[in-house]
Design brief:
Distance between the termini: 24 Å
Structural class: alpha/beta
Number of helices: 9
Helix content: 25-40%
């Protein structure tokens, strides 16, 4: 008997609302259903699709297409007996027990916020840059612009949120940079392009660890990629990047700004970090809000300043949130915390470098074709969960 059958027969059913359709939200749904086969779960999101953005690094080269990275969730939701409400979240009231949406209110016994983050568009002239991780359409714009260029300078860079050290997503920018170099060499036109990497830090990607920074900068030097480091970015102009340490010409700019919280947070009394994310404790609970949890990019969690904003970290937080949520509903102690772990393969289009970091250990495996294929294999296995 499904939870819907129970509702029709009048049996009481505990109801959990999960907000979002990204990695954190879907991992939370899987973890809740694995632990509680009859729990009523409603997923609230603008679309019943998973957009696998880590694979967007391969769109400019043609290795991936839009249809490869968008997974309809209908079968997944049916298989796990999950209700879906197509709506935008507008707010949270009654101490978390009522979600305001564009399709009406959703009453709940517990709620998990996993609506992701929002990139800061505060730099003057940022409209002249493409922000790759804003979606598949952005990667397609990069593909089309590069295909149309006969020659020129492509600048690739990222920055953070000064008020939130962990709210940065720099890893994909190294991948777009190295992937573009590989693509242009394969197309036999690399000699007509200059690639420039820029960052306000002299050690870009420091959250990956010192050895990784040395490797990445060495890889840029080996590939003939110019760097402009250690200067705060002040603005973008048409065909120019301006920093406190000078400006340089750029026909195409790929830039990843720092992250902050969703706009809808402003319509709530949810506690915020100085960087605009939702405050969270080590158990993924929002302080002061009963049975209200946050996972993934939406939250500001305790931990080291290198703690990543990535799918793997969201998966770990989802498992802790699901365990604690169910314990709280049973009136039992909820002490589960998540492991802080950075795990990624920085891919260059045909080769990849494995970087793994925990509070106790740090490992980096040199670039190899095997790791490129390992990243592609992981993508295939991950998406099979939802297809």
């Amino acid at each position: 008997m499904t939870h819907k059958d129970k509702a029709r027969t009048g049996a009481g059913t505990v109801h959990v609302a999960v907000l979002g359709s990204g990695f954190g939200a879907l991992s939370t749904v899987r973890e809740l259903r694995r632990r509680h086969p009859t729990l009523r779960i409603t997923l609230v999101a603008p679309r019943a699709e998973l957009h696998y953005l880590p694979g967007s690094i391969w769109i400019p080269s043609g290795l991936r297409r839009r249809e490869d990275l968008i997974v309809p969730l209908d079968r997944f939701l049916k298989r796990l007996d999950v209700d879906f409400l197509k709506a935008e979240v507008n707010g949270l009231e009654d101490g978390g027990r009522r979600v305001r949406t564009s399709a009406g209110d959703v009453a709940n016994d517990a709620v998990v916020i996993a609506t992701g983050g929002r990139f800061l568009h505060t730099l003057p002239g940022i409209e002249y840059a493409i922000v790759p991780c804003e979606g598949i359409a952005a990667a397609e714009r990069i593909r089309d612009r590069v295909q149309a260029m006969q020659e020129g300078t492509v600048a690739v860079g990222f920055a953070g949120n000064p008020q939130e050290p962990t709210a940065v997503r720099g890893g994909p920018m190294f991948e777009f940079l190295f992937g573009l170099d590989t693509q242009l060499r394969r197309e036999r036109r690399r000699d007509r392009f200059e690639l420039v990497f820029f960052n306000p830090s002299t050690e870009p990607g420091s959250r990956l660890g010192p050895s990784a920074v040395r490797h990445l900068l060495g890889e840029m030097q080996r590939r003939g990629i110019r760097t402009h480091l250690g200067h705060r970015i002040t603005r973008f102009e048409p065909q120019q990047v301006v920093t406190e340490g000078g400006s340089f010409a750029a026909d195409l700019v790929l830039f990843m700004p720092g992250m902050t919280g969703n706009a809808w947070f402003d319509a709530t009394a949810l506690p915020r970090s100085s960087g605009g994310l939702l405050q969270a404790d080590a158990q993924c609970r929002v302080p002061g809000w009963s049975r209200t949890y946050v996972v993934g990019d939406s939250g500001s969690f305790p931990g080291p300043d290198w703690m990543p904003k990535q799918a793997h970290m969201a998966d770990l937080q989802a498992a802790a949130a699901a365990e604690n949520l169910l314990a709280d509903l049973r009136g039992e102690p909820s002490h589960a915390s998540f492991k802080v772990e950075l795990a990624c393969i920085v891919d260059g289009g045909d080769r990849g470098t494995l970087i793994w970091r925990t509070p106790e250990r740090h490992l980096m495996l040199p670039s190899s074709r095997l790791l490129h294929w390992a990243k592609r294999g992981f993508e295939r296995r991950y998406l099979q969960r939802y297809r």
